[in-house]
């Protein structure tokens, strides 16, 4: 199995993340809170995404990354491979994403004199205490919503990227850096806009049960969120998600493409 896609995915995901982290945290408080942990985790998750995507395309079309410029795969194949990558990366992402959401939502000032100690002292402590209080399955809270969020939207991600690249690249040539940046940026936006409704639900599922259990499952969470807050709830954060998505994914795709061309 070709492994360079996994390696390129690993590095490019980390680079994209450094750029996106301030956007990711500005929704909440504390700008650079917990930067090292997401870098390590997104590198792993992005490597699974790009590695599985590329190897699925290889299985579907019998072409390697290099051959795909001269024999471009159909968009259906791109979509299926993207969904497969999205589905598998969701399981790697789930515990990391849960810890991120729990830590970012913890806005009490750290270690204030006289104040109550924070529930989680950092990513490791957060993981250990979820494991202790909620069991190993607790680390996968919200994983189902995350899978539903990521499977189709990562199909959309790679299709958008391919459509835009092909639009602006003469046949048989590699896309220019500018094209890769723009196509990657819009792929990120398209994917995040369509993922936002389930992103809202996913985060609620991940925070559920800390005080008391509010939702029975994904559907119940959707229904009661809409009832209480109206359909606008599904677009909460869509602007900040898109603003973050453009630079993160422009850099992710640019570094991915270049690492593979040099490799
Ligand atoms: C599918 N969904 C839109 C949720 C994620 C897209 C992942 C792409 C990139 N790692 C990023 O964080 O933007």
TrEMBL record:
<feature type="repeat" description="Solcar">
    <location>
        <begin position="73"/>
        <end position="167"/>
    </location>
</feature>
<dbReference type="InterPro" id="IPR023395">
    <property type="entry name" value="MCP_dom_sf"/>
</dbReference>
<keyword id="KW-0472">Membrane</keyword>
<keyword id="KW-1133">Transmembrane helix</keyword>
<feature type="repeat" description="Solcar">
    <location>
        <begin position="175"/>
        <end position="262"/>
    </location>
</feature>
<feature type="transmembrane region" description="Helical">
    <location>
        <begin position="6"/>
        <end position="23"/>
    </location>
</feature>
<feature type="transmembrane region" description="Helical">
    <location>
        <begin position="35"/>
        <end position="54"/>
    </location>
</feature>
<dbReference type="InterPro" id="IPR018108">
    <property type="entry name" value="MCP_transmembrane"/>
</dbReference>
<dbReference type="GO" id="GO:0005743">
    <property type="term" value="C:mitochondrial inner membrane"/>
</dbReference>
<keyword id="KW-0677">Repeat</keyword>
<keyword id="KW-0812">Transmembrane</keyword>
<keyword id="KW-0813">Transport</keyword>
<dbReference type="Pfam" id="PF00153">
    <property type="entry name" value="Mito_carr"/>
</dbReference>
<dbReference type="InterPro" id="IPR050567">
    <property type="entry name" value="Mitochondrial_Carrier"/>
</dbReference>
<protein>
    <recommendedName>
        <fullName>Solute carrier family 25 member 45</fullName>
    </recommendedName>
</protein>
<feature type="transmembrane region" description="Helical">
    <location>
        <begin position="74"/>
        <end position="94"/>
    </location>
</feature>
<comment type="similarity">
    <text>Belongs to the mitochondrial carrier (TC 2.A.29) family.</text>
</comment>
<keyword id="KW-0999">Mitochondrion inner membrane</keyword>
<dbReference type="GO" id="GO:0022857">
    <property type="term" value="F:transmembrane transporter activity"/>
</dbReference>
<keyword id="KW-0496">Mitochondrion</keyword>
């Amino acid at each position: 199995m070709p492994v360079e896609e996994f390696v390129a995915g690993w590095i490019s995901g980390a680079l994209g993340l450094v750029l996106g982290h301030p956007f990711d945290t500005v929704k909440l408080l504390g700008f650079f809170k917990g930067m090292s942990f997401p870098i390590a985790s997104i590198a792993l998750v992005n490597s699974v995404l790009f590695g599985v995507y590329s190897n699925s395309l290889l299985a579907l079309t019998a072409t390697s990354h290099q051959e795909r410029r001269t024999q471009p795969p159909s968009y259906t194949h791109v979509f299926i491979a993207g969904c497969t990558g999205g589905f598998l990366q969701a399981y790697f992402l789930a515990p990391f994403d849960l810890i991120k959401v729990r830590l970012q939502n913890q806005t009490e000032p750290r270690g204030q004199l006289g104040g109550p100690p924070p529930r989680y002292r950092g990513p490791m402590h957060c993981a250990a205490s979820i494991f202790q209080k909620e069991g190993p399955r607790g680390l996968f809270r919200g994983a189902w919503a995350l899978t539903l969020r990521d499977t189709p939207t990562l199909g959309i991600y790679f299709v958008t990227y391919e459509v835009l690249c092909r639009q602006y690249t003469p046949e048989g040539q590699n896309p220019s850096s500018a094209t890769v940046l723009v196509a990657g940026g819009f792929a990120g936006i398209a994917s995040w806009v369509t993922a936002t409704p389930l992103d809202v639900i996913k985060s609620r599922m991940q925070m559920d049960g800390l005080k008391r259990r509010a939702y029975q499952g994904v559907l119940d969470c959707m229904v009661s969120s809409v009832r209480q807050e109206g359909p606008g709830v599904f677009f909460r954060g869509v602007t900040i998600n898109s603003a973050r998505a453009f630079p993160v994914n422009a850099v992710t795709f640019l570094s991915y493409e270049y690492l593979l061309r040099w490799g």
